[in-house]
Amino acid sequence: MDLRGGKAIAVIAGVAVAAAALGGLGVWLATRPGPEPAPPSASAPATESVEPTAPPSSPPTSTASEEPTPAPSGESTSSSARNPSDVVDQPTLVVDWSRSGDRIRLTLDYVQVLWGEDANREAARRGLESPVPNDYLIVNDNPRLRVFPVRPGIMVHVIYNDDGTVRYEGRDLTLDEWYSRLEGPLADQYSSSYFLVTIENGVITKVAQQYTP
């Protein structure tokens, strides 16, 4: 038997086996799935600061900005969770109004109302007539307008009768009755003077027209 020939055959067979093993490794590496991409990191939502109070006589309604949407019903209304734009009995001018379905929105212009000596001192400081006529002064320095929805079903306190006369003690109308007058020929009367407005969780819950001499 030729041993050299047997050794040659054994070497060739060994090379073939090694080549087959490397080829299988190459296929396994090629078909092996790569690492899954890391999920994109969620960015924190931007927060927006809310400006305080106060504004001018009759700025264009285009400067109005919608205030934050009220919290869903059932959400906590504790002082720590209340909307920072909430106010109680804020003196304001009602400069515009709109309706979509059963939702009424008011555009408000916050003011400051001073009486007596406070009004006289402020008028003198501003170079205005002092003592002030009728013992009061409305200060309106901030041009910002604010838009809020009104809670359906509230009553609105007004100081006018439908014949245009003043009712000093005032009377209450439903929200729909008041809005119908704002859309009619008596709009100037039913939106005049200033109002005390309360806002809770971004929704108007009180509207009361105030008498001024």
Q: What's the assembly state of these chains?
A: single chain
Helix content: 10-25%
Which ranges are low-confidence, i.e. pLDDT below 50, for 5 or more consecutive residues? Answer: 1-62, 69-80
The neighbouring-strand order within the major sheet is 1-6-3-2-9-10-7-8
Using DSSP, what is the number of strands? 10
State Rg. 37 Å
* Overall average residue pLDDT: 75
Q: Helix count, per DSSP? A: 4
Give the CA-CA distance, first to last residue. 134 Å
What is the chain-wise order of helices and strands? HEEEEHEEEEHHEE
Any idea what the shape is? globular
What does this structure look like?
With 213 residues, the protein is of the alpha+beta class. Helices cover 24% and strands 32% of the residues. The protein contains four helices and ten strands. The chain has helices at 3-31, 116-125, 175-182, 187-190; strands spanning 64-66, 87-100, 103-110, 112-115, 136-139, 145-149, 155-160, 166-174, 194-200, 203-210. Strands 1-6-3-2-9-10-7-8 form an eight-stranded mixed sheet. The protein has a two-stranded antiparallel sheet with strand order 4-5. It is globular and about 45 Å long. The termini are far apart. The model is unreliable at 1-62 and 69-80 (pLDDT under 50).
